[in-house]
């Protein structure tokens, strides 16, 4: 290789080309990761804004900030945006896109063109849906339950459904890309049980994306056809069953919960082991638990329907399998704790995020067990107890893990360090604000406050006010990183290749990495997370 | 990026791969996973159909007799034959026979078009019989329980329609393959592409067999 060519090869992926087309037509997985990061951040703040207005409305028992109609549209926007345009793509398409090829020692994903196409599909579908929801006001909630969505909601439901349907393809393309890359493009010596848990988690997530998303697509097609062409598959007048829609919808949307949480588990495993300076406790158990959650996740959708009138025996089985999911989840939680045990803990901002995740995920998981019990669920179904439960998993779990991971790999992605002290403040604001927002919701839900209501009895006001205050603190926890991470892009200290002295192939290359990730082909000779060897060097 | 001149790139893998074997394996695996997603897509609708088929067995069996079994059978035979020619095209391209590849691709496409034509004729026939409950068209079903029968026809149109969409997409990609074969620039890459198209075509074929069985054959 000539000297000029060698220089070009070692040049960072960020320094080559800053024209618009160098970004919009890139096939570099690292640049596509950035495109996704920009998109999901925009969607996240939009969905967050809707939540803030909801919390503002709920400070008083009367409906005074927005109309009842607008309130319904607000929680629909919040749900649709956060589930489909933030949580599902969040970790896989940003950190996963950036890191998966690096972690397996590959030059790129298997199908780089599909990768950039998936971003276009996602962004165009997302903007289309938002435009439809905002301009004409879809008020079905993110679940689009029939017969309301098919027969009564006379607004842009079809447009919203089409947008969500289109975005589904981006999940599918990402899933195919990750699975094939993990199977076919691992560096020599990188056996399955030497893969980082982050790769395992994204691999399992991809399996769910690939197997569950098409069922949602089919269901949405049926809804669209019913509304547009009058092909009434769920129409009771033709002997159709609206409950069948719920079955098909949750067949996707429950596994989708694992699309949202598994990558977070993968991130946290990486963070905890690094900042405990210890190998992951029970690595094999961790990897197998991820797969077990994936498999069980497909068998529990009926627990969303305990009070829908489905057969009691079906309810029993769904309840049983839901309890089973607790086993691998508990294995993971215990293993994170055991990894911490006797570790040399470093309480960096990243570690605060990781520990927050473990605590909040545990609370969210425990309350999930209450909800899995048939009788208890009858009491708390469709109350704020459920709202609090899944926000503990989705926000306390996934968003915390996402932010933790973003900080951890920020030096690798940008070549810059962020200000540690501000990151600690943000991580603590997130933890405090989150608990203040959502713990009161457990209490009011258990006392009978139903979800999706704009007005409520005065008895609940104190809890609602606490929750709204918490939302303000939480907003600080989100806005701070936006400010100082952007600040660090220009003024942050330059990052060395491995600022955390972490294990993993991604830390063997420059920060930021060159276009093809590694200048030399990588080989792997030992297990992952060998922190004893790293620290004794 | 190391851009090699197109004349020497004849048998080079794409830049993210180490060699051609790895690329071929990755491409095929990607297609198989995509077919798994397609299976789940149709699977969801077949599941819904099965639920109703068990709920209203007599009405559905009776309604199925209003479909044209002869044309359906003929179409099934056509589609299976087209898959034979698709497989022959794969063999031909791997053997480096450009003209044969072109011929087999043309036959495959031709049969596909005839299939869609017959399907369209069937739909038209059902439309004139007033058995097409779409867009508020009159549905005048002569047997008992016209409402449940309408549900059967709803599924019939969803499944055959979705299948026709898949076939049309397949015909488009096969036409692109015809152009690529015509040019014959990179036979190794073309071989991969035609093999992947062949997988898709076979899948569309298999789905039809299930549609034929559940819609036409399960009759009173």
Automatic annotation (TrEMBL), chain A:
InterPro entries: Cyt_c_oxase-like_su1_dom, Cyt_c_oxase-like_su1_sf, Cyt_C_Oxase_1, Cyt_c_Oxase_su1_BS, Cyt_c_oxidase_su1_bac. PROSITE patterns: COX1 (PS50855), COX1_CUB (PS00077). The chain crosses the membrane at residues 33-54, 74-95, 116-136, 156-180, 200-225, 245-268, 280-301, 313-334, 346-372, 384-409, 421-442, 462-487. Residues 506-537 are annotated as: Disordered. Its main location: membrane. It is an enzyme of class 7 (translocase). SUPFAM superfamilies: Cytochrome c oxidase subunit I-like. GO terms for cellular component: plasma membrane. Keywords: Cell membrane, Copper, Electron transport, Heme, Iron, Membrane, Metal-binding, Respiratory chain, Translocase, Transmembrane, Transmembrane helix, Transport. It is found in: Cell membrane; Membrane. It catalyses: 4 Fe(II)-[cytochrome c] + O2 + 8 H(+)(in) = 4 Fe(III)-[cytochrome c] + 2 H2O + 4 H(+)(out). The keyword ATP-binding does not apply. It is a multi-pass membrane protein. GO terms for molecular function: cytochrome-c oxidase activity; heme binding; metal ion binding. The keyword Transit peptide does not apply. Residues 23-525 form the Cytochrome oxidase subunit I profile domain. One of its GO terms (biological process) is oxidative phosphorylation. Pathway: Energy metabolism; oxidative phosphorylation. Its EC number is 7.1.1.9. Cytochrome c oxidase is the component of the respiratory chain that catalyzes the reduction of oxygen to water. Subunits 1-3 form the functional core of the enzyme complex. CO I is the catalytic subunit of the enzyme. Electrons originating in cytochrome c are transferred via the copper A center of subunit 2 and heme A of subunit 1 to the bimetallic center formed by heme A3 and copper B. Belongs to the heme-copper respiratory oxidase family. This is Cytochrome c oxidase subunit 1.
TrEMBL record, chain B:
GO terms for cellular component: plasma membrane. This is Cytochrome c oxidase subunit 3. GO terms for molecular function: cytochrome-c oxidase activity. Belongs to the cytochrome c oxidase subunit 3 family. Keywords: Membrane, Transmembrane, Transmembrane helix. It comes from Modicisalibacter xianhensis. It comes from the Bacteria. InterPro entries: Cyt_c/ubiquinol_Oxase_su3, Cyt_c_oxidase-like_su3, Cyt_c_oxidase_su3-like_sf, Cyt_c_oxidase_su3_a-hlx.
């Amino acid at each position: 290789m000539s000297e000029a060519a060698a220089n070009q090869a070692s040049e960072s992926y960020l320094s080559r080309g800053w024209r618009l087309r160098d970004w919009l037509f890139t096939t570099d997985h690292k640049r596509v990761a950035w495109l996704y990061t920009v998109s999901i951040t925009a969607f996240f703040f939009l969905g967050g804004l809707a939540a803030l207005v909801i919390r503002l409305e709920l400070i008083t028992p009367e409906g005074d900030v927005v109309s009842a109609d607008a309130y319904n549209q607000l929680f629909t926007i919040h749900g649709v945006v956060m589930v489909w345009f933030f949580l599902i793509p969040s970790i896989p398409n940003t950190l996963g896109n950036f890191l998966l090829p690096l972690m397996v020692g590959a030059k790129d994903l298997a199908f780089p063109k599909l990768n950039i196409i998936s971003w276009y599909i996602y962004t165009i579908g997302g903007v289309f849906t938002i435009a439809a929801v905002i301009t004409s006001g879809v008020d079905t909630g993110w679940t689009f339950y029939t017969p309301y969505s098919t027969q009564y909601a006379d607004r842009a439901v079809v447009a919203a459904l089409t947008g969500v349907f289109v975005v589904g393809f981006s999940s599918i393309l990402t899933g195919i890309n990750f699975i094939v890359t993990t199977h076919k493009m691992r560096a020599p010596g990188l056996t399955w049980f030497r893969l980082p848990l982050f790769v395992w988690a994204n691999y399992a997530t991809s399996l769910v994306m690939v197997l569950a998303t098409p069922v949602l697509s089919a269901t949405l097609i049926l809804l669209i056809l019913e509304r547009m062409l009058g092909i009434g598959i769920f129409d009771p007048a033709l002997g159709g069953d609206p409950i069948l829609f719920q079955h098909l919808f949750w067949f996707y949307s429950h596994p989708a919960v694992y699309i949202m949480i598994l990558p977070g588990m993968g991130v946290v495993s990486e963070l905890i082991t690094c900042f405990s300076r210890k190998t992951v406790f029970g690595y094999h158990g961790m990897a197998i638990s991820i797969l077990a959650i994936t498999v069980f996740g497909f068998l529990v959708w009926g627990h969303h329907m305990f009070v829908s009138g489905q057969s009691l025996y079906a309810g029993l089985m769904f309840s049983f399998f839901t309890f089973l999911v607790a086993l691998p989840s508990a294995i993971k939680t215990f293993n994170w704790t055991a990894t911490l045990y006797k570790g040399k803990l470093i309480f960096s901002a990243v570690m605060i995020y990781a520990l927050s995740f473990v605590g909040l995920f545990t609370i969210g998981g425990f309350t999930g067990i209450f909800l899995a019990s048939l009788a208890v669920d009858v009491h708390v179904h469709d109350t704020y107890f459920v709202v609090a439960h899944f926000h503990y998993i989705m926000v306390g779990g996934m968003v915390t893990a996402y932010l933790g991971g973003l900080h951890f790999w920020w030096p690798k992605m940008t070549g810059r360090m962020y200000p540690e002290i501000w990151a600690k403040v943000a991580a603590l604001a997130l933890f405090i604000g989150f608990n203040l927002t959502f713990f009161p919701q457990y209490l009011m839900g258990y006392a009978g406050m139903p979800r999706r209501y704009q007005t409520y009895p005065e008895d609940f006001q104190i809890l609602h006010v606490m929750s709204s205050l918490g939302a303000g603190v939480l907003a600080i926890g989100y806005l701070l990183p936006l400010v100082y991470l952007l600040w660090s892009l220009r003024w942050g200290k330059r990052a060395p290749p491995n600022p955390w002295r972490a294990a993993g192939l991604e830390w063997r290359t420059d920060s930021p990495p060159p276009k093809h990730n590694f200048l030399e082909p990588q080989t792997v000779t030992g297990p992952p997370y060998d922190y004893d060897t790293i620290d004794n060097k | 990026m190391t851009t090699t001149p197109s004349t020497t790139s004849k048998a080079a893998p794409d830049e993210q791969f180490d060699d051609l074997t790895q690329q071929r394996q990755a491409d095929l695996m990607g297609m198989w996973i995509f077919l798994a997603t397609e299976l789940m897509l149709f699977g969801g609708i077949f599941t819904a159909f099965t639920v109703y088929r068990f709920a209203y067995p007599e009405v559905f069996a009776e309604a199925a007799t209003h479909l044209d079994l002869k044309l359906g059978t003929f179409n099934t035979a056509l589609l299976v034959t087209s898959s034979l020619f698709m497989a022959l095209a794969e063999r031909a391209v791997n053997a480096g026979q450009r003209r044969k590849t072109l011929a087999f691709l043309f036959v495959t496409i031709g049969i596909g078009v005839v299939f869609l034509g017959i399907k369209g004729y069937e739909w038209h026939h059902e439309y004139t019989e007033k058995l097409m409950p779409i867009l508020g068209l009159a549905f005048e079903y002569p047997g008992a329980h016209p409402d449940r029968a309408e549900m059967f026809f709803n599924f019939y149109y969803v499944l055959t329609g979705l299948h026709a969409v898949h076939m049309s997409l397949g015909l488009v990609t096969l036409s692109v393959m015809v152009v690529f074969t015509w040019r014959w620039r990179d036979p190794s890459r073309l071989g991969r592409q035609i093999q992947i198209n062949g997988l898709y075509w076979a899948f569309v074929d298999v789905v039809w067999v299930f549609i034929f069985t559940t819609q036409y054959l399960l009759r009173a």
